[in-house]
Design a protein that fits this description.
The chain is 80% helix and 0% strand. The protein has 316 residues and is an all-alpha fold.
């Protein structure tokens, strides 16, 4: 049991590390090609990585009797397309945003989707707990310390990242709607190819990509496509299997911290040309946002566990 827990912790930490350092390679990719092109190739590679696993799962499911099948083809296609549209939109805002702000700020602002998602749920009739409102208030204060300039305004890049966080919240809600009717790997594979197709069409219209651009930016493309999308997603599935979801979420939240550290060292080494260091006030803002995210995760997970236990008690 302890070995299994150690394996899960390692897989989830590696997932957070890959996602966190992925912000650095996204910034690097922006030096070689336009965002539409980068996002298109990134998700095409991500789709290719998990395609074999998705096909195995799909055909195994088809061999089952109709009443035992997990994958609803109509719902899977619909969910995959909608998830892909949301993922493509969020990733484009993220790619434009990370090119106009620091890597660390990008990571912490993106993490706010954990707080934004339940607030968006209000529009679907879902109640919002007091813990979420407390976390949201703390996150807003942290955002103020992290992003607001001397003239009390958000920078363009920070604003783009905030929109990105909101779009990732929409993406999560779509997944929540369609995931019970299908398999997560199959759904993810479809969303990757949908996002690649949409951004690819926009790339051909607006970016006019060249093979030399793609060749020069091959490393960030491969890292974001294969590692951040395909490998990290698979590690997340392995790590979360039979593991405490609260601890899993907390480990993966380290993505935001890792992005700040990775951005700083990437600048010092010379991978990035713009200074990625944060002021003491901005570091405090990052810490407040991180604590708000962890607080909401803990409270919401404990609340769900309590409700489940109460329901089981009543059934017994």
């Amino acid at each position: 049991m302890k070995n299994n827990n150690a394996k899960s912790v390692f897989c989830l930490f590696l997932t957070a590390f890959i996602w966190g350092t992925g912000f650095v390679t996204q910034t690097m990719g922006g030096n070689y090609m336009q965002p539409f092109t980068f996002v298109a190739i990134r998700y095409f590679l991500g789709g290719l990585v998990i395609l074999p696993l998705a096909l195995i799962i799909f055909f195994k499911d088809r061999k089952k009797k109709a009443e035992n099948r997990l994958i609803n083809i109509k719902q899977t296609l619909c969910g995959g397309v909608l998830c892909g549209i949301a993922l493509c939109s969020a990733s484009l805002f993220q790619q434009y945003g990370v090119m106009n702000t620091t890597v660390g700020k990008a990571g912490f602002i993106t993490a706010m989707y954990i707080i934004i998602t339940p607030i968006f749920g209000l529009f679907l009739g879902k109640k919002c707990s007091l813990a979420i409102w407390i976390g949201a208030a703390a996150a807003v204060f942290g955002m103020y310390l992290l992003c607001i300039n001397e003239d009390f305004s958000l920078s363009f890049g920070d604003l783009l990242m905030l929109v990105c966080a909101a779009l990732f919240s929409v993406h999560i809600m779509i997944i929540d709607r369609f995931s019970p009717q299908t398999d997560g790997v199959v759904l993810s594979c479809l969303q990757f190819f949908t996002a690649a197709l949409l951004s690819g069409i926009l790339s051909l219209i607006f970016d006019k990509p060249t093979f030399s651009q793609i060749g020069d930016g091959l490393f960030p493309l491969l890292y974001c496509g294969i590692m951040s999308s395909g490998v990290a997603y698979t590690l997340q599935i392995v790590g979360q299997r039979n593991f405490n979801p609260t601890i899993a979420a907390m480990i993966m939240s380290l993505e935001s911290v890792i992005s700040a550290v990775a951005g700083y060292f990437a600048f010092k080494i010379g991978f990035l040309t713009e200074d990625q260091s944060l002021s003491p006030t901005q570091i405090i803002g990052c810490a407040i946002i991180f604590c708000a995210v962890i607080f909401v995760q803990l409270r919401e997970t404990n609340s769900k566990a309590s409700k489940k236990a109460l329901k089981n008690h009543k059934l017994n």
